[in-house]
Specification:
The chain folds into two domains: 107 residues, Arc Repressor Mutant, subunit A, CATH 1.10.10; 90 residues. Helix content is 53%, strand content 11%. It is mainly alpha-helical and 216 residues long. The chain has six helices and six strands; from the N terminus they run αβαββααβαββα. The protein is rod-shaped.
Length: 216
């Protein structure tokens, strides 16, 4: 009867086990690499979507990333946004946290101030929208705000809507710095007395409405 080579058999078995272990490790590495590449692809898709929507004059809501082809899970949204912001090639992309969502935009197409206004419109924060727009113009330029501005993008108020929101603003103490002035042609302007005195605001409104055309 032929003697079985036990030691040789053990070596063969060990070699097979080692091969299986190596294959298993390689499969795990491949799966990890695929997962990393998939995540990288999703981050790139997120950046592309933000830039595309910004080029169309639109904000990207974080909830947009739930949809195909990005299809993130709820728990992936914030970490993925942080990863996007951390990448040097997406340095033009910024976020604004609203009351109910997070919004993204590219400053290649939309300024930060304009994006803030768009967020307030999106979240129907209309009283604050008017007040902060007026304060920004009074502080930055400085100049009073022509109320006709609020009939254009991104505001798109009707006359009735604007009148209603302005009436509500006047009843709230936190907006008592927002004042009115009228030019001699009755055009209405708003200003913040935190940043402009009444005489200056009135004279600028008059110059814009009347004197500018008379003295080009």
């Amino acid at each position: 009867m032929k003697e079985i080579d036990i030691k040789g058999l053990e070596n063969d078995i060990n070699q097979e086990i080692n091969k299986e272990d190596i294959l298993l490790e390689q499969n795990m590495v491949d799966e990890n690499n695929n997962s990393i590449h998939e995540q990288e692809d999703k981050i790139s898709l997120m950046g592309d979507l933000v830039r595309l929507k910004s080029s169309e004059g639109k904000l990207t809501n974080g909830e947009d990333f739930f949809e195909d082809p990005i299809a993130l899970e709820v728990e992936e949204i914030l970490p993925s946004i942080e990863e996007l912001k951390a990448r040097e090639e997406y340095g033009d992309i910024y976020t604004i946290k609203g009351a109910s969502s997070i919004y993204l935009f590219s400053d290649k197409y939309i300024t930060y101030n304009y994006a803030q206004m768009m967020v307030r419109v999106e979240e129907k924060d209309l009283i604050n929208l008017i007040a902060e727009t007026v304060r920004h113009e009074s502080k930055t330029y400085p100049r009073p705000t022509d109320v006709r501005l609020f009939s254009y993008n991104p505001f798109n108020f009707t006359k009735e809507q604007f009148s209603d929101v302005l009436a509500q603003l006047k009843t709230k103490k936190e907006y008592e710095d927002i004042k009115e002035t009228r030019a001699s042609n009755a055009a209405l302007y708003l200003y913040s007395d935190k940043f402009m005195v009444k005489v200056h605001a009135a004279s600028l409104a008059e110059w814009i409405e009347v004197e500018h055309d008379q003295n080009p």
